[in-house]
Amino acid sequence: MDYISTRGSAPALDFEGATLAGLASDGGLYVPREWPRFSADEIAAMAGLPYAELAAKIMFPFVEGSLTYDRLLELTRQAYGRFAHKAVTPLKQLDEQQWVLELFHGPTLAFKDVALQLLGLLFEEFLGRSERNLTIVGATSGDTGSAAIDAVAGRAKVDIFMLHPKGRVSDVQRRQMTTVLAPNVHNIAIDGSFDDAQATVKRMFNDHAMTDRFAIGAVNSINWARLMAQVVYYFAAGLQLGAPHRKVAFSVPTGNFGDVFAGYVAAQMGLPVEKLIVATNVNDILHRALAEGDYSQGTVTPTAAPSMDIQVSSNFERLLFDLGGRDGKALAEQMAGFEATKAMQLTNAQREGAAALFSSARTDADEMAQAIRWAWENCGELIDPHTACGLFAARTAGIDASIPVVTLATAHPAKFPDAVERATGQRSGLPARVGDLFEREEKCVELTGDYESIADFVAQHASPKI
């Protein structure tokens, strides 16, 4: 399998190369040249496999040529051995139709762990084959940062610089990043929004003064390897609910479109997906794009679901590329227009292709609280605000009653205790494994949001590529 850029002009890379590169040199995102596909019989044969074995089977077509199947299986067993639940991503029933897929049993209590525990091992594997040092530069709206830091803290040949918007992540989210004191970890709080941080990261990938000196890598979902790992839990849930003989719908709280794009990949690989419901909060660029074809950047509004407070959804480009006939030149022109004007209309082909599999819903603060309250009062389940956006969308999507609807529970409720308590009167405690979080020492640098100050800081503290 090799990987091509959504913008058409960067050289194709193998899996190892795409993993270490992150963003393509032409500013695009790497995608597999073609989607591998499993037959119904092959999917049926995966039922009942332990999660690590299922992960190796699903991901092997993407990594072949860079990893053997046996080595991949060793890595998945190592990655998922750290999870607090033996099922890794357990599925829980709420009522006759609604289910939640708990993705928060990893070390930092968020779905990002499912991918980033593996990605950290992949970095270590591939860097061990060369003399290269890797400088990871990432932006986080809350959960990516802590999961990425946990995955690479203390690892050889890797420095990580994680940008987060100052004051716009929860206390738990911040502390999960800033209390990791490993010498290769650098937390940076910037004045501005997640979109500002993400724009800085993308600019650094295209800054030759930086890339000539440092091997800049990505842990955000612009990195294909991260999305690849997220495909697995769609298969895990689908198999438990009757796939390949029964369709399943998924409701996905999302801001950057990575988690729900993994569901799209699962569908391309043969999983029978009835619908992918894109659940946004009031920062609703994805809802507007899917409902009206209007992909226009607005102003970020802070909410109780900060990981979704995003107005530029990087991974949406991958979907537009696939639905637009994989025409890299045309997409490069379309994205250049968006980057210049902050507005873009989807083409007819993109709108029609999306409508076949996707729907969307926008959740405001009252609806978010209502969903948290419903889950507690009717099911005895505490859910976090992001999951609540997904559950609200799931319950209002109008999916046929014979089809199960799975909401992706993306974070542990204890990461957002104030919002949960306001809605239910219940305060979720941190699991014992992170119970001392508020007693740990913090370390963080505060910088303005301008590119030069951030690039200077990275240059002063990173190890050159060789």
UniProtKB/TrEMBL annotation:
Keywords: Amino-acid biosynthesis, Lyase, Pyridoxal phosphate, Threonine biosynthesis
Gene from which the chain derives: thrC
Protein origin, superkingdom: Bacteria
Span of the signal peptide: none
Domain Threonine synthase N-terminal: 3-80
UniProt family annotation: Belongs to the threonine synthase family.
PANTHER family: THREONINE SYNTHASE FAMILY MEMBER (PTHR42690), THREONINE SYNTHASE-LIKE 2 (PTHR42690:SF1)
Pathway: Amino-acid biosynthesis; L-threonine biosynthesis; L-threonine from L-aspartate: step 5/5
Organism from which the protein derives: Novosphingobium clariflavum
MF (Gene Ontology): threonine synthase activity
Designated name of the protein: Threonine synthase
Pfam families linked to this entry: PALP, THR4_C, Thr_synth_N
Catalytic activity entry: O-phospho-L-homoserine + H2O = L-threonine + phosphate
Domain Tryptophan synthase beta chain-like PALP residues, every copy: 89-360
Entry cofactors: pyridoxal 5'-phosphate
InterPro entries: Ser/Thr_deHydtase_PyrdxlP-BS (IPR000634), Thr_synth_N (IPR029144), Thr_synth_N_sf (IPR037158), Thr_synthase-like (IPR004450), Threonine_Synthase (IPR051166), TrpB-like_PALP (IPR001926), TrpB-like_PALP_sf (IPR036052)
EC category name: lyase
Oxidoreductase keyword on record: no
EC numbers for this chain: 4.2.3.1
